[in-house]
Give the backbone structure.
Amino acid sequence: MSSLFAPFSQRSVTLRNRVAMSPMCMYSCEGMDGVATAWHPAHYGSRAAGGCSLVMLEATAVTPGGVISPQDLGIWSDDHIPGLRAIAESIQYAGAAAAIQIAHAGRKSGTYRPWSPVRGYVPDWPHPRLAPAAIPFREDTPVPQAMTATERNAMITAWQQAARRAHEAGFDVLELHSAHGYLLHQFLSPLSHPEPEGGDRFAFHRELVRAVREEWPAEKPLWMRLSVTDWVEGGWTPDDSARLVQELAPLGLDLVDCSSGGTVMNANIPVGPGYQVHLARDLRAATGIATGAVGSITEPAQAEAIVAEGSTDIVFLGRQLLREPYWALRAAKVLGAEVPWPSQYAWSVGNPG
């Protein structure tokens, strides 16, 4: 039996296999108000129809000033719930679990979307770029505003209320974005937060997970995308990640989606096939928490081996699912797994899987 196509259960959620769609920004809220458009349910629902067991929405901002780009999805208002619910329902209709990643970009907020004719940071950004310390991402990027105690408390509340809205919108899994140099990662890395309050680098994350769990139901899994390492001397390390997870798991964290980097520009990242899998494997071994592996995983046999050898519980695919939305159905055929196609297709093409 294929390990990649074995079910996976956490709390009240059972996934039909181990293939998940990684969160990827679509920059498609044309009203620049965080409200979903027709693009979103079509895009996400197609990957569920394509055989993924879980489809994760892109970084969805918890405050207006927390967007990566002005066209990002938002979850800072109850007005966002209907559009988000439509996306969740499109995913669930096709048999997958609907997940949402909530986020705040911190000092990296307010940038132009990638295909804009103008690149970089939006000038005259109407929101303060908040961060744990007034340290810019690069010398030529805006200096963020160090958060006050009042702003810190308001930020915790914003994430908590975003969790409430995610539940009301019907999502099955919630992920907290603590990677790629965005706000939560900024709190962790010595490169962006050299002097944490009271010397406790994990304090914000503990408070955040507790607050989120007050609104996110106990029967639903809570995940975190984590940059397990900064890949830079003096930065955040895999050992730091293990210590953090050991503190957060008892508070209700269920899985770590293991990525890396993003705090500084000069990181020496050894990019290649499956280059981050060892981070998921080692964190899983050190802490016992379930993990997800992501990064240049493209071939069915590669994904199968990663799960079969015990390196991870979930395989996240990103760009590969942009190239090939029905990758999971092809992978099942390659691996000899019996996976039904959607009835709307199978009746006509004879369920090629």
Notes: The radius of gyration is 19 Å. Residues 298 and 320 are 6 Å apart (CA to CA).
